[in-house]
Amino acid sequence: MKLFPASTPSLLHLLLLAQLFVLSASRPARCSLCSSFRPMIQSLDSLKRLSGTLHGLTDSELSIVQTGEHRLKDLPTMQHTADHFSSIKLNESLSQLYLGIQAFRLHVDWLKVARENVSLPLSSQTAEGSRVQLLLLSNLTSTALQQMNQELPQPASPSFPVVSTSFDAVRYSAEISQRLQTFCDFSKRVLTHLKRHCHCT
Ligand SMILES: *[C@@H]1O[C@H](CO)[C@@H](O)[C@H](O)[C@H]1NC(C)=O
Ligand SMILES: *[C@@H]1O[C@H](CO)[C@@H](O)[C@H](O)[C@H]1NC(C)=O
Ligand SMILES: *[C@@H]1O[C@H](CO)[C@@H](O)[C@H](O)[C@H]1NC(C)=O
What is the pLDDT of residue 31? Predict the structure, then answer.
């Protein structure tokens, strides 16, 4: 196909070609992810609401068991520094998000069984709702990573403590609930930042 008349290419043509090249090179595939951000953020909102019901406690009961101590070592910890936000990369943030989601999927599944073991089953709405939202988020992030030709990171298998009393089960529930809410808030901030960075409308 002929782009230009058969004459020798003028400087203008070359400049135009160079400009086309720059445009396509500086507009990476990442912005094809604009349509993924909204469902991810919506799902994080639903998950945050559900995570508040993982312990089944009233606020005053919660204040008694919630120590802020991190006893579950394999749940993600988040960096909240401004520094972190100014330097985040799309592929790395999405990989972190994907790994965090896998960790919470495994911990919520574990918690469900641990609570059943001490006769404190989660309501089916909470258990099923969080399972569905985590699966959806896992699906959305893995699809986004694949679109960017990024390999899916392999989650390590977490080690879980033994739960022998209902008090233990309640304390772990409170911890997962609180850390999942923090994770949802943090991930939402990251995604909102990336969305702006990608100039999505
Ligand atoms: C993200 O992409 C950059 C280059 O665009 C690359 O250097 C880096 O290794 C990637 N990170 C991950 C986690 O794949
Ligand atoms: C639940 O109880 C079974 C049988 O005692 C035990 O093998 C399993 O590890 C327990 N699961 C959790 C998550 O505590
Ligand atoms: C993710 O969702 C898409 C569309 O709903 C579906 O086609 C795909 O099979 C799902 N993938 C996984 C791993 O669940």
Answer: 67
